[in-house]
User: Which sequence fits this backbone?
Protein backbone atom coordinates (compact mmCIF):
# COMPACT_ATOMS: atom_id res chain seq x y z
CA UNK A 1 0.00 0.00 0.00
CA UNK A 2 1.15 3.54 -0.64
CA UNK A 3 -0.26 6.89 0.38
CA UNK A 4 2.02 9.43 -1.27
CA UNK A 5 0.09 12.68 -0.96
CA UNK A 6 -1.91 14.30 1.77
CA UNK A 7 -5.64 13.93 1.31
CA UNK A 8 -7.70 16.88 0.05
CA UNK A 9 -10.55 17.66 2.39
CA UNK A 10 -13.70 19.79 2.26
CA UNK A 11 -15.59 20.42 5.50
CA UNK A 12 -19.01 21.94 4.87
CA UNK A 13 -17.80 23.00 1.44
CA UNK A 14 -14.62 24.66 2.67
CA UNK A 15 -11.11 23.43 1.93
CA UNK A 16 -9.55 22.63 5.30
CA UNK A 17 -7.89 19.83 7.17
CA UNK A 18 -9.48 20.51 10.52
CA UNK A 19 -12.79 20.16 12.30
CA UNK A 20 -14.24 21.77 15.46
CA UNK A 21 -13.28 19.73 18.53
CA UNK A 22 -16.88 19.98 19.68
CA UNK A 23 -18.17 17.95 16.72
CA UNK A 24 -20.34 15.07 17.87
CA UNK A 25 -18.64 12.83 15.35
CA UNK A 26 -15.59 12.97 17.61
CA UNK A 27 -17.41 13.07 20.94
CA UNK A 28 -19.69 10.08 20.36
CA UNK A 29 -19.01 8.69 16.88
CA UNK A 30 -22.38 10.32 16.17
CA UNK A 31 -22.37 10.08 12.38
CA UNK A 32 -21.96 8.00 9.26
CA UNK A 33 -19.50 7.49 6.45
CA UNK A 34 -19.26 6.16 2.91
CA UNK A 35 -16.15 5.02 1.07
CA UNK A 36 -16.59 5.56 -2.66
CA UNK A 37 -14.27 4.23 -5.35
CA UNK A 38 -13.21 6.72 -8.02
CA UNK A 39 -12.62 5.02 -11.34
CA UNK A 40 -10.98 7.39 -13.80
CA UNK A 41 -12.46 10.15 -11.68
CA UNK A 42 -15.97 8.69 -11.73
CA UNK A 43 -17.51 7.89 -8.29
CA UNK A 44 -18.82 4.33 -8.59
CA UNK A 45 -22.30 3.45 -7.31
CA UNK A 46 -22.61 6.98 -5.92
CA UNK A 47 -26.41 6.97 -5.80
CA UNK A 48 -26.39 3.75 -3.75
CA UNK A 49 -23.89 5.34 -1.35
CA UNK A 50 -26.14 8.40 -0.97
CA UNK A 51 -29.14 6.14 -0.40
CA UNK A 52 -27.40 4.22 2.39
CA UNK A 53 -26.24 7.50 3.92
CA UNK A 54 -29.82 8.77 3.98
CA UNK A 55 -31.01 5.50 5.46
CA UNK A 56 -28.37 5.89 8.16
CA UNK A 57 -29.50 9.47 8.85
CA UNK A 58 -33.07 8.27 9.25
CA UNK A 59 -31.98 5.51 11.62
CA UNK A 60 -29.90 7.90 13.74
CA UNK A 61 -32.31 10.83 13.50
CA UNK A 62 -29.76 13.06 11.76
CA UNK A 63 -31.33 15.90 9.77
CA UNK A 64 -31.03 14.93 6.11
CA UNK A 65 -33.21 17.45 4.25
CA UNK A 66 -31.16 18.87 1.41
CA UNK A 67 -28.13 16.88 2.54
CA UNK A 68 -27.53 14.99 -0.68
CA UNK A 69 -27.90 18.16 -2.76
CA UNK A 70 -25.26 19.82 -0.60
CA UNK A 71 -22.98 16.79 -0.91
CA UNK A 72 -23.36 16.97 -4.70
CA UNK A 73 -22.38 20.64 -4.56
CA UNK A 74 -19.37 19.75 -2.42
CA UNK A 75 -18.36 17.09 -4.92
CA UNK A 76 -18.67 19.54 -7.81
CA UNK A 77 -16.49 21.97 -5.92
CA UNK A 78 -13.90 19.25 -5.34
CA UNK A 79 -14.00 18.35 -9.02
CA UNK A 80 -13.46 22.01 -9.93
CA UNK A 81 -10.37 22.14 -7.75
CA UNK A 82 -8.89 18.71 -8.35
CA UNK A 83 -8.60 16.26 -11.22
CA UNK A 84 -10.61 13.45 -9.66
CA UNK A 85 -8.96 10.96 -12.02
CA UNK A 86 -5.75 11.51 -10.05
CA UNK A 87 -7.43 10.20 -6.90
CA UNK A 88 -8.80 6.75 -6.09
CA UNK A 89 -10.99 7.15 -3.04
CA UNK A 90 -13.70 9.59 -2.00
CA UNK A 91 -14.65 9.28 1.64
CA UNK A 92 -17.86 11.03 2.66
CA UNK A 93 -18.51 11.55 6.37
CA UNK A 94 -21.64 13.11 7.81
CA UNK A 95 -21.95 13.81 11.53
CA UNK A 96 -24.88 15.15 13.50
CA UNK A 97 -22.98 18.41 13.87
CA UNK A 98 -21.01 20.39 16.44
CA UNK A 99 -22.06 21.49 19.89
CA UNK A 100 -24.81 20.56 22.24
CA UNK A 101 -24.29 19.20 25.70
CA UNK A 102 -24.27 15.53 26.55
CA UNK A 103 -25.84 12.72 24.59
CA UNK A 104 -29.15 14.50 23.84
CA UNK A 105 -29.21 15.20 20.10
CA UNK A 106 -30.70 18.70 19.87
CA UNK A 107 -32.99 19.03 16.84
CA UNK A 108 -31.43 22.28 15.58
CA UNK A 109 -27.97 20.80 15.01
CA UNK A 110 -26.66 21.26 11.46
CA UNK A 111 -24.94 18.12 10.16
CA UNK A 112 -21.24 18.35 9.33
CA UNK A 113 -20.28 17.25 5.80
CA UNK A 114 -16.75 16.01 5.16
CA UNK A 115 -15.46 14.95 1.75
CA UNK A 116 -11.94 13.55 1.57
CA UNK A 117 -9.98 12.54 -1.50
CA UNK A 118 -7.17 10.06 -1.07
CA UNK A 119 -5.14 7.67 -3.18
CA UNK A 120 -6.36 4.17 -3.80
CA UNK A 121 -4.41 1.51 -1.96
CA UNK A 122 -2.06 -0.37 -4.31
CA UNK A 123 -2.00 -4.15 -3.98
CA UNK A 124 1.07 -5.45 -5.81
CA UNK A 125 -0.01 -9.07 -5.39
CA UNK A 126 -3.20 -8.65 -7.44
CA UNK A 127 -5.56 -10.12 -4.82
CA UNK A 128 -8.60 -9.78 -7.10
CA UNK A 129 -6.89 -12.18 -9.51
CA UNK A 130 -4.99 -14.48 -7.17
CA UNK A 131 -7.27 -14.50 -4.17
CA UNK A 132 -6.46 -13.84 -0.52
CA UNK A 133 -5.76 -15.66 2.71
CA UNK A 134 -8.10 -14.77 5.58
CA UNK A 135 -8.28 -15.62 9.27
CA UNK A 136 -10.98 -15.97 11.87
CA UNK A 137 -10.98 -13.17 14.45
CA UNK A 138 -11.35 -13.82 18.17
CA UNK A 139 -13.49 -10.74 18.70
CA UNK A 140 -17.18 -11.41 18.31
CA UNK A 141 -19.46 -8.66 17.06
CA UNK A 142 -22.12 -7.41 19.44
CA UNK A 143 -25.77 -7.86 18.54
CA UNK A 144 -27.16 -4.39 18.03
CA UNK A 145 -30.27 -4.34 15.82
CA UNK A 146 -30.61 -0.56 16.11
CA UNK A 147 -27.17 -0.02 14.59
CA UNK A 148 -26.93 -3.05 12.30
CA UNK A 149 -26.55 -2.49 8.58
CA UNK A 150 -25.70 1.20 8.59
CA UNK A 151 -22.15 2.50 8.22
CA UNK A 152 -21.91 4.54 11.39
CA UNK A 153 -18.80 5.94 13.04
CA UNK A 154 -18.76 3.55 16.01
CA UNK A 155 -16.06 1.26 14.64
CA UNK A 156 -14.06 0.16 17.67
CA UNK A 157 -15.00 -3.47 17.11
CA UNK A 158 -13.47 -3.32 13.63
CA UNK A 159 -10.36 -1.60 14.97
CA UNK A 160 -9.89 -4.23 17.69
CA UNK A 161 -10.54 -7.09 15.27
CA UNK A 162 -8.10 -5.69 12.71
CA UNK A 163 -5.50 -5.31 15.47
CA UNK A 164 -5.54 -9.07 16.07
CA UNK A 165 -3.00 -9.77 13.31
CA UNK A 166 -0.10 -8.01 11.61
CA UNK A 167 0.99 -10.67 9.06
CA UNK A 168 0.58 -8.84 5.72
CA UNK A 169 -0.08 -12.16 3.98
CA UNK A 170 -3.43 -12.27 5.77
CA UNK A 171 -5.66 -9.77 4.05
CA UNK A 172 -8.83 -9.95 6.06
CA UNK A 173 -10.30 -11.29 9.28
CA UNK A 174 -13.71 -12.93 9.43
CA UNK A 175 -16.05 -12.08 12.26
CA UNK A 176 -18.67 -14.08 14.09
CA UNK A 177 -21.34 -12.46 16.22
CA UNK A 178 -21.79 -13.03 19.96
CA UNK A 179 -23.91 -16.09 19.20
CA UNK A 180 -21.31 -17.57 16.85
CA UNK A 181 -22.93 -16.82 13.47
CA UNK A 182 -20.86 -15.58 10.53
CA UNK A 183 -21.31 -11.85 9.86
CA UNK A 184 -18.61 -10.35 7.62
CA UNK A 185 -14.95 -9.35 7.43
CA UNK A 186 -13.50 -6.38 9.32
CA UNK A 187 -13.82 -4.22 6.18
CA UNK A 188 -15.74 -6.42 3.74
CA UNK A 189 -18.80 -8.57 3.23
CA UNK A 190 -18.59 -12.31 2.71
CA UNK A 191 -20.20 -14.67 0.19
CA UNK A 192 -19.69 -18.35 -0.50
CA UNK A 193 -21.02 -21.04 -2.82
CA UNK A 194 -22.13 -24.44 -1.55
CA UNK A 195 -23.51 -27.10 -3.87
CA UNK A 196 -24.39 -24.53 -6.48
CA UNK A 197 -26.13 -22.11 -4.15
CA UNK A 198 -24.79 -18.72 -3.01
CA UNK A 199 -24.89 -17.73 0.65
CA UNK A 200 -24.22 -14.56 2.59
CA UNK A 201 -24.96 -13.64 6.22
CA UNK A 202 -28.05 -11.59 6.98
CA UNK A 203 -27.16 -8.29 8.60
CA UNK A 204 -30.16 -7.42 10.77
CA UNK A 205 -28.34 -7.66 14.12
CA UNK A 206 -24.75 -6.70 13.29
CA UNK A 207 -22.53 -5.89 10.33
CA UNK A 208 -22.57 -3.33 7.55
CA UNK A 209 -24.89 -3.70 4.58
CA UNK A 210 -22.24 -3.10 1.92
CA UNK A 211 -22.93 -1.26 -1.31
CA UNK A 212 -21.09 -3.83 -3.43
CA UNK A 213 -22.72 -6.64 -1.43
CA UNK A 214 -26.14 -5.29 -2.31
CA UNK A 215 -25.16 -4.71 -5.92
CA UNK A 216 -24.00 -8.33 -6.11
CA UNK A 217 -27.34 -9.52 -4.75
CA UNK A 218 -29.03 -7.70 -7.64
CA UNK A 219 -26.51 -8.80 -10.28
CA UNK A 220 -26.72 -12.43 -9.18
CA UNK A 221 -30.48 -12.28 -9.25
CA UNK A 222 -30.48 -10.85 -12.81
CA UNK A 223 -28.20 -13.75 -13.71
CA UNK A 224 -30.69 -16.25 -12.31
CA UNK A 225 -28.46 -16.93 -9.30
CA UNK A 226 -30.37 -16.46 -6.09
CA UNK A 227 -28.42 -15.58 -2.95
CA UNK A 228 -29.63 -16.99 0.35
CA UNK A 229 -29.26 -14.59 3.28
CA UNK A 230 -29.36 -16.22 6.68
CA UNK A 231 -27.51 -17.19 9.85
CA UNK A 232 -24.73 -19.64 9.11
CA UNK A 233 -22.01 -21.15 11.28
CA UNK A 234 -18.36 -21.12 10.25
CA UNK A 235 -18.64 -24.79 9.32
CA UNK A 236 -21.00 -23.86 6.50
CA UNK A 237 -18.33 -21.66 4.95
CA UNK A 238 -15.67 -24.33 5.52
CA UNK A 239 -17.73 -26.74 3.42
CA UNK A 240 -18.06 -24.21 0.59
CA UNK A 241 -16.77 -24.77 -2.95
CA UNK A 242 -15.70 -21.16 -3.34
CA UNK A 243 -15.87 -17.92 -1.37
CA UNK A 244 -15.19 -14.22 -1.81
CA UNK A 245 -15.04 -10.89 -0.04
CA UNK A 246 -16.30 -7.59 -1.39
CA UNK A 247 -16.33 -3.91 -0.61
CA UNK A 248 -16.39 -0.62 -2.49
CA UNK A 249 -12.61 -0.40 -2.86
CA UNK A 250 -11.51 -4.01 -3.35
CA UNK A 251 -14.51 -4.95 -5.51
CA UNK A 252 -14.34 -8.75 -5.23
CA UNK A 253 -11.45 -10.69 -3.71
CA UNK A 254 -11.64 -14.48 -4.00
CA UNK A 255 -10.92 -16.22 -0.68
CA UNK A 256 -8.32 -18.92 -1.30
CA UNK A 257 -7.33 -19.84 2.26
CA UNK A 258 -8.76 -19.85 5.78
CA UNK A 259 -6.51 -21.67 8.27
CA UNK A 260 -6.04 -25.21 6.83
CA UNK A 261 -8.91 -24.84 4.37
CA UNK A 262 -7.88 -23.86 0.82
CA UNK A 263 -10.05 -23.01 -2.17
CA UNK A 264 -9.38 -22.49 -5.84
CA UNK A 265 -10.82 -19.31 -7.33
CA UNK A 266 -14.24 -20.54 -8.40
CA UNK A 267 -16.38 -19.95 -11.47
CA UNK A 268 -19.16 -18.08 -9.66
CA UNK A 269 -16.59 -15.70 -8.17
CA UNK A 270 -15.12 -15.06 -11.61
CA UNK A 271 -18.56 -14.59 -13.15
CA UNK A 272 -19.57 -12.04 -10.52
CA UNK A 273 -16.27 -10.19 -10.91
CA UNK A 274 -17.05 -9.92 -14.61
CA UNK A 275 -20.62 -8.77 -13.98
CA UNK A 276 -19.47 -6.16 -11.46
CA UNK A 277 -16.87 -4.82 -13.90
CA UNK A 278 -19.52 -4.49 -16.59
CA UNK A 279 -21.89 -2.91 -14.10
CA UNK A 280 -19.28 -0.31 -13.17
CA UNK A 281 -18.85 0.52 -16.85
CA UNK A 282 -22.60 1.03 -17.23
CA UNK A 283 -23.26 3.00 -14.06
CA UNK B 1 -9.45 35.50 32.52
CA UNK B 2 -11.86 34.91 29.67
CA UNK B 3 -15.51 35.65 30.37
CA UNK B 4 -16.60 33.83 27.24
CA UNK B 5 -19.06 30.97 27.55
CA UNK B 6 -17.32 29.03 24.78
CA UNK B 7 -15.29 26.13 26.07
CA UNK B 8 -11.53 26.53 26.36
CA UNK B 9 -9.73 23.71 24.58
CA UNK B 10 -6.15 22.43 24.50
CA UNK B 11 -5.25 19.90 21.79
CA UNK B 12 -1.86 18.32 22.45
CA UNK B 13 -1.04 21.22 24.71
CA UNK B 14 -1.99 23.93 22.23
CA UNK B 15 -4.91 26.31 22.63
CA UNK B 16 -7.23 25.67 19.67
CA UNK B 17 -10.79 24.73 18.90
CA UNK B 18 -10.04 22.39 16.02
CA UNK B 19 -8.66 18.95 15.34
CA UNK B 20 -7.25 17.24 12.20
CA UNK B 21 -10.08 15.67 10.19
CA UNK B 22 -7.92 12.54 9.86
CA UNK B 23 -8.02 11.87 13.61
CA UNK B 24 -9.14 8.32 14.33
CA UNK B 25 -11.32 9.62 17.13
CA UNK B 26 -13.59 11.02 14.42
CA UNK B 27 -13.13 8.24 11.87
CA UNK B 28 -13.87 5.31 14.17
CA UNK B 29 -14.57 6.64 17.66
CA UNK B 30 -11.12 5.20 18.32
CA UNK B 31 -10.47 6.73 21.72
CA UNK B 32 -11.61 7.39 25.28
CA UNK B 33 -12.90 10.22 27.41
CA UNK B 34 -13.27 11.29 31.01
CA UNK B 35 -15.62 13.90 32.43
CA UNK B 36 -14.14 15.44 35.56
CA UNK B 37 -15.96 17.71 37.97
CA UNK B 38 -14.15 20.88 39.01
CA UNK B 39 -15.07 21.94 42.53
CA UNK B 40 -13.74 25.40 43.29
CA UNK B 41 -11.20 24.72 40.56
CA UNK B 42 -10.16 21.34 42.00
CA UNK B 43 -10.57 18.31 39.69
CA UNK B 44 -12.41 15.71 41.77
CA UNK B 45 -11.21 12.09 41.81
CA UNK B 46 -8.64 12.97 39.14
CA UNK B 47 -6.36 10.02 39.90
CA UNK B 48 -9.24 7.59 39.47
CA UNK B 49 -10.10 9.22 36.13
CA UNK B 50 -6.50 8.84 34.98
CA UNK B 51 -6.49 5.22 36.12
CA UNK B 52 -9.64 4.40 34.13
CA UNK B 53 -8.20 6.21 31.11
CA UNK B 54 -5.04 4.08 31.30
CA UNK B 55 -7.13 0.94 31.67
CA UNK B 56 -9.04 1.96 28.55
CA UNK B 57 -5.77 2.56 26.68
CA UNK B 58 -4.59 -0.92 27.62
CA UNK B 59 -7.88 -2.46 26.49
CA UNK B 60 -7.80 -0.63 23.15
CA UNK B 61 -4.04 -0.94 22.64
CA UNK B 62 -3.54 2.85 22.63
CA UNK B 63 0.03 3.91 23.49
CA UNK B 64 -0.10 5.23 27.04
CA UNK B 65 3.55 5.61 28.06
CA UNK B 66 4.01 9.09 29.47
CA UNK B 67 0.40 9.94 28.68
CA UNK B 68 -0.71 10.86 32.18
CA UNK B 69 2.40 13.02 32.71
CA UNK B 70 1.57 14.90 29.53
CA UNK B 71 -2.06 15.29 30.60
CA UNK B 72 -0.88 16.73 33.93
CA UNK B 73 1.29 19.21 32.01
CA UNK B 74 -1.70 20.13 29.86
CA UNK B 75 -3.79 20.68 32.96
CA UNK B 76 -1.09 22.88 34.52
CA UNK B 77 -1.01 24.90 31.31
CA UNK B 78 -4.79 25.30 31.42
CA UNK B 79 -4.59 26.38 35.06
CA UNK B 80 -1.94 28.97 34.14
CA UNK B 81 -4.23 30.42 31.48
CA UNK B 82 -7.59 30.12 33.20
CA UNK B 83 -9.00 30.40 36.70
CA UNK B 84 -10.26 26.83 36.98
CA UNK B 85 -12.63 27.91 39.76
CA UNK B 86 -14.63 29.75 37.08
CA UNK B 87 -15.28 26.48 35.28
CA UNK B 88 -17.24 23.42 36.33
CA UNK B 89 -16.26 20.63 33.98
CA UNK B 90 -12.97 19.31 32.61
CA UNK B 91 -13.44 16.85 29.77
CA UNK B 92 -10.37 14.83 28.83
CA UNK B 93 -10.39 12.98 25.51
CA UNK B 94 -7.60 10.73 24.27
CA UNK B 95 -7.70 9.24 20.78
CA UNK B 96 -5.33 6.79 19.10
CA UNK B 97 -4.10 9.70 16.96
CA UNK B 98 -4.37 11.04 13.44
CA UNK B 99 -3.67 9.30 10.17
CA UNK B 100 -3.21 5.72 9.11
CA UNK B 101 -5.36 3.99 6.57
CA UNK B 102 -8.29 1.78 7.40
CA UNK B 103 -9.02 0.10 10.68
CA UNK B 104 -5.49 -1.24 11.30
CA UNK B 105 -4.10 0.69 14.29
CA UNK B 106 -0.49 1.37 13.31
CA UNK B 107 1.83 1.10 16.32
CA UNK B 108 3.62 4.41 15.68
CA UNK B 109 0.53 6.56 16.04
CA UNK B 110 0.84 9.32 18.65
CA UNK B 111 -2.29 9.67 20.78
CA UNK B 112 -4.19 12.95 20.59
CA UNK B 113 -4.85 14.67 23.93
CA UNK B 114 -7.81 17.01 24.26
CA UNK B 115 -8.67 18.95 27.41
CA UNK B 116 -11.82 21.02 27.38
CA UNK B 117 -13.13 23.35 30.09
CA UNK B 118 -16.82 24.10 30.15
CA UNK B 119 -19.42 25.42 32.58
CA UNK B 120 -21.22 23.05 34.90
CA UNK B 121 -24.84 22.44 33.99
CA UNK B 122 -27.20 24.31 36.30
CA UNK B 123 -30.16 22.37 37.72
CA UNK B 124 -32.61 24.85 39.17
CA UNK B 125 -34.80 22.09 40.61
CA UNK B 126 -32.07 20.74 42.93
CA UNK B 127 -32.31 17.11 41.79
CA UNK B 128 -29.71 15.95 44.30
CA UNK B 129 -32.04 17.12 47.07
CA UNK B 130 -35.45 16.43 45.60
CA UNK B 131 -34.74 13.38 43.47
CA UNK B 132 -35.53 12.74 39.83
CA UNK B 133 -38.04 10.97 37.64
CA UNK B 134 -36.57 8.39 35.26
CA UNK B 135 -37.93 6.25 32.44
CA UNK B 136 -37.11 2.89 30.92
CA UNK B 137 -35.54 3.15 27.44
CA UNK B 138 -36.64 0.95 24.55
CA UNK B 139 -33.09 0.59 23.24
CA UNK B 140 -31.24 -2.37 24.68
CA UNK B 141 -27.49 -2.22 25.10
CA UNK B 142 -25.44 -4.67 23.05
CA UNK B 143 -23.33 -7.26 24.84
CA UNK B 144 -19.73 -6.41 24.10
CA UNK B 145 -17.30 -7.77 26.70
CA UNK B 146 -14.27 -6.32 24.90
CA UNK B 147 -15.66 -2.77 25.23
CA UNK B 148 -17.60 -3.09 28.49
CA UNK B 149 -16.59 -0.94 31.43
CA UNK B 150 -14.31 1.52 29.62
CA UNK B 151 -15.43 5.00 28.62
CA UNK B 152 -14.73 4.80 24.89
CA UNK B 153 -15.95 7.15 22.15
CA UNK B 154 -18.44 4.71 20.56
CA UNK B 155 -21.51 6.24 22.16
CA UNK B 156 -24.25 5.92 19.55
CA UNK B 157 -26.31 3.67 21.82
CA UNK B 158 -26.35 6.40 24.46
CA UNK B 159 -27.25 9.03 21.85
CA UNK B 160 -30.14 6.93 20.51
CA UNK B 161 -31.37 6.09 23.99
CA UNK B 162 -31.23 9.74 25.09
CA UNK B 163 -33.16 10.70 21.95
CA UNK B 164 -36.11 8.59 23.06
CA UNK B 165 -37.59 11.37 25.22
CA UNK B 166 -37.67 15.15 25.30
CA UNK B 167 -39.78 15.77 28.43
CA UNK B 168 -37.41 17.83 30.63
CA UNK B 169 -39.13 16.46 33.75
CA UNK B 170 -37.58 13.08 32.98
CA UNK B 171 -33.93 13.35 33.92
CA UNK B 172 -32.57 9.98 32.93
CA UNK B 173 -33.39 6.81 31.00
CA UNK B 174 -32.58 3.36 32.34
CA UNK B 175 -31.12 0.78 30.01
CA UNK B 176 -31.44 -2.98 29.87
CA UNK B 177 -29.05 -5.14 27.88
CA UNK B 178 -30.02 -7.37 24.96
CA UNK B 179 -30.87 -10.13 27.42
CA UNK B 180 -33.06 -7.86 29.53
CA UNK B 181 -30.77 -7.28 32.53
CA UNK B 182 -30.45 -3.83 34.09
CA UNK B 183 -27.20 -2.06 33.18
CA UNK B 184 -27.22 1.70 33.89
CA UNK B 185 -28.66 5.04 32.82
CA UNK B 186 -27.72 6.76 29.56
CA UNK B 187 -25.20 8.94 31.44
CA UNK B 188 -25.14 7.46 34.94
CA UNK B 189 -24.79 4.31 36.99
CA UNK B 190 -27.65 2.89 39.01
CA UNK B 191 -27.91 1.60 42.59
CA UNK B 192 -30.86 0.50 44.68
CA UNK B 193 -31.57 -0.83 48.14
CA UNK B 194 -33.73 -3.87 48.74
CA UNK B 195 -34.40 -5.24 52.24
CA UNK B 196 -31.34 -3.49 53.65
CA UNK B 197 -28.92 -4.65 50.92
CA UNK B 198 -27.45 -2.47 48.16
CA UNK B 199 -27.45 -3.64 44.55
CA UNK B 200 -25.88 -2.43 41.33
CA UNK B 201 -25.51 -4.12 37.91
CA UNK B 202 -22.23 -5.80 37.08
CA UNK B 203 -20.62 -4.22 34.02
CA UNK B 204 -18.61 -7.00 32.41
CA UNK B 205 -20.65 -7.20 29.20
CA UNK B 206 -21.93 -3.63 28.72
CA UNK B 207 -22.02 -0.29 30.47
CA UNK B 208 -19.45 2.14 31.79
CA UNK B 209 -17.66 1.50 35.06
CA UNK B 210 -18.25 4.94 36.55
CA UNK B 211 -15.71 6.72 38.73
CA UNK B 212 -18.33 7.78 41.29
CA UNK B 213 -19.90 4.31 41.11
CA UNK B 214 -16.59 2.74 42.05
CA UNK B 215 -15.96 5.34 44.75
CA UNK B 216 -19.38 4.55 46.21
CA UNK B 217 -18.54 0.83 46.29
CA UNK B 218 -15.48 1.70 48.39
CA UNK B 219 -17.29 4.21 50.63
CA UNK B 220 -20.15 1.81 51.26
CA UNK B 221 -17.72 -0.96 52.12
CA UNK B 222 -15.87 1.30 54.59
CA UNK B 223 -19.26 2.00 56.15
CA UNK B 224 -19.93 -1.73 56.54
CA UNK B 225 -22.48 -1.65 53.72
CA UNK B 226 -21.65 -4.28 51.11
CA UNK B 227 -22.86 -3.72 47.57
CA UNK B 228 -23.91 -6.76 45.54
CA UNK B 229 -22.95 -6.58 41.87
CA UNK B 230 -24.88 -8.91 39.60
CA UNK B 231 -27.44 -9.36 36.85
CA UNK B 232 -30.84 -8.12 37.94
CA UNK B 233 -34.13 -7.72 36.09
CA UNK B 234 -36.12 -4.49 36.17
CA UNK B 235 -38.55 -6.11 38.62
CA UNK B 236 -35.75 -6.23 41.21
CA UNK B 237 -35.40 -2.45 41.02
CA UNK B 238 -39.16 -1.98 41.09
CA UNK B 239 -39.27 -3.80 44.42
CA UNK B 240 -36.54 -1.61 45.88
CA UNK B 241 -36.97 0.62 48.93
CA UNK B 242 -34.81 3.37 47.48
CA UNK B 243 -32.68 3.96 44.38
CA UNK B 244 -30.19 6.47 43.03
CA UNK B 245 -28.13 7.45 40.01
CA UNK B 246 -24.57 8.70 40.07
CA UNK B 247 -21.93 10.14 37.80
CA UNK B 248 -19.00 12.52 38.04
CA UNK B 249 -21.05 15.65 37.43
CA UNK B 250 -24.36 14.93 39.16
CA UNK B 251 -22.76 13.13 42.14
CA UNK B 252 -25.82 11.28 43.49
CA UNK B 253 -29.40 11.88 42.37
CA UNK B 254 -32.08 10.01 44.28
CA UNK B 255 -34.57 8.27 41.98
CA UNK B 256 -38.07 9.18 43.09
CA UNK B 257 -40.17 7.95 40.17
CA UNK B 258 -40.06 5.34 37.41
CA UNK B 259 -43.35 5.07 35.50
CA UNK B 260 -46.01 4.35 38.19
CA UNK B 261 -43.45 3.41 40.83
CA UNK B 262 -42.55 6.19 43.27
CA UNK B 263 -39.93 6.25 46.00
CA UNK B 264 -39.12 8.61 48.84
CA UNK B 265 -35.50 9.71 49.08
CA UNK B 266 -34.13 6.97 51.32
CA UNK B 267 -31.71 6.96 54.23
CA UNK B 268 -28.97 4.98 52.44
CA UNK B 269 -29.07 7.45 49.55
CA UNK B 270 -28.73 10.36 51.95
CA UNK B 271 -25.92 8.66 53.86
CA UNK B 272 -23.93 8.01 50.69
CA UNK B 273 -24.48 11.59 49.51
CA UNK B 274 -23.00 12.71 52.81
CA UNK B 275 -20.06 10.28 52.55
CA UNK B 276 -19.34 11.36 48.97
CA UNK B 277 -19.39 15.03 49.94
CA UNK B 278 -16.93 14.35 52.75
CA UNK B 279 -14.80 12.24 50.41
CA UNK B 280 -14.62 15.09 47.91
CA UNK B 281 -13.48 17.41 50.66
CA UNK B 282 -10.71 14.98 51.62
CA UNK B 283 -9.50 14.07 48.13
Assistant:
Amino acid sequence: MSMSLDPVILVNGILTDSLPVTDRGLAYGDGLFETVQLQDGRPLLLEAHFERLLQGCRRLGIASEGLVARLRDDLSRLASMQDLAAWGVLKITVTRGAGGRGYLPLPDLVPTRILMLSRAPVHADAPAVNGVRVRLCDLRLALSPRLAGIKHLNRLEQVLARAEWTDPAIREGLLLDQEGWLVEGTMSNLFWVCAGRIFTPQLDRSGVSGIVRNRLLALASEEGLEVEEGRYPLSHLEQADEAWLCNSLIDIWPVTALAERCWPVGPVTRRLQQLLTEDYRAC
In short: Chain B touches chain A through 54 residues (CB under 8 Å). Residues 127-282 of chain B form a domain with the D-amino Acid Aminotransferase; Chain A, domain 2 fold (CATH 3.20.10.10). Residues 244 and 255 of chain B are 5 Å apart (CA to CA).
